[in-house]
Design goal:
By secondary structure, the protein is an alpha/beta fold. About 25% of the residues lie in helices and about 30% in strands. It has helices spanning about 30-35, 50-60, 70-80, 105-115, 130-135, and strands spanning about 5-10, 15-20, 40-45, 85-90, 100-105, 120-125, 140-150, 155-160, 165-175, 180-190.
Length: about 200
């Protein structure tokens, strides 16, 4: 059975990106980049918006505010291009990004089938609403967040946790990269209500 990882890269205040900021907020370091290169092969799950953004990068579109990709960003996009990708969308007509499969069926049922029929790692990339739906459905085995040491209150885009249910998190891994980037990984459990005895 496959394992499903929801994987976020965030600012300290929980934004997925910030207007005018480069990828990784420009703060990736050698330890973090080495760790990225050691990650196991995965099939990446995404929705239409993330597909449009990332496939555009793969085709050479540069993020707003940048003249060109930095080497670290280019390497990250190249790795994604080589990886298997499953895109959930009812609006996309066809996929042009290499190694991408379009699924128009219900994402929850499709991911449930992928988990039961496979043996590798499934990992989300971006796709905040997809991640939220998978979490609500109880399909997420691991919830990982890499927090970069910035607060993007003025320029932050895509608040990650808006609309989330209450979730209890059991920490299973933590690590600091380059003396500034913090990884925390949890086993999530969606709560129907706050635990008994929680303060009002």
């Amino acid at each position: 059975m496959s394992e499903l990882l929801v994987d976020f890269i965030t600012s300290l205040d929980g934004y997925a990106s910030g207007e005018g900021w480069p990828g990784f907020w420009g703060l990736e370091g050698p330890e973090y980049l080495a760790w990225l290169g050691e990650q196991p092969e995965a099939t990446y799950l995404m929705g239409a918006n993330t597909y449009r953004l990332m496939s555009g990068f793969a085709a050479g579109e540069v993020p707003d505010g940048q003249d060109e990709f930095r080497p670290e960003e280019e390497a990250s996009v190249d790795e994604l291009t080589k990886a298997s990708k499953v895109v959930f969308s009812s609006s996309l007509e066809q996929l042009t990004w290499a190694n991408s499969t379009l699924v128009r069926d219900d994402a929850i049922e499709a991911v449930r089938a992928l988990k039961s029929s496979g043996s590798g790692l499934l990992s989300t990339i971006g796709s905040l609403s997809l991640c939220r739906s998978l979490l609500r459905a109880g399909l997420v085995d691991r919830f990982r967040v890499v927090m970069f040491p910035v607060i993007t209150g003025a320029t932050g885009a895509e608040r990650i946790y808006d609309g989330y249910p209450d979730v209890a998190l059991e920490m299973i891994e933590h690590r600091t990269f380059d003396s500034r980037i913090q990884l925390v990984e949890y086993k999530p459990r969606v709560l129907e209500h706050p635990p008994l005895g929680a303060p009002a």
